[in-house]
Write a structure and sequence with these properties.
By secondary structure, the chain is mainly alpha-helical. It is built from four helices and no strands.
Length: 121
């Protein structure tokens, strides 16, 4: 009978330690996330940069965008339409017409379209 009391007490003690540790870790994580609120846009900017580079590598010859007046792309092709869409997105973001998150999502959609175009070619 005495052994059961010690076992029950031990289980209660272990559970109390687990619950207290969980609360402590939860508070640490909450404080960390509150303190690093400005890091998310940095990661989002990195993602946007990678998507822009991938799109440039695929759509432009050698990954280098031509100067504003030197577009040599066939204006009727699907590749030209995707280039125009990318340029419009860049202008909208530069003009603060769309948010960073929306820009990222639209770049992702454009990247999917480009990948589908490459598969069909």
């Amino acid at each position: 009978m005495d052994l059961n009391v010690y076992l029950i007490g031990g289980v209660i003690l272990v559970l109390a330690i687990i619950v207290l540790n969980h609360q402590k870790q939860k508070n640490k994580m909450k404080n960390f996330l509150e303190g690093s609120g400005d890091l998310q846009p940095i990661f989002l900017m990195k993602a946007v940069e990678k998507k822009n580079k991938a799109l440039s590598d695929i759509l432009y010859d050698g990954g280098v965008k031509p100067l504003a007046g030197a577009t040599e792309v066939n204006s009727n092709g699907p590749k030209a339409a995707l280039i125009k869409e990318l340029e419009k997105l860049e202008k909208d973001y530069a003009g603060k017409k769309i948010t960073l998150r929306a820009y990222d999502e639209q770049l992702f959609d454009l990247l999917e379209k480009v990948n589908k175009l490459l598969v069909t070619m």
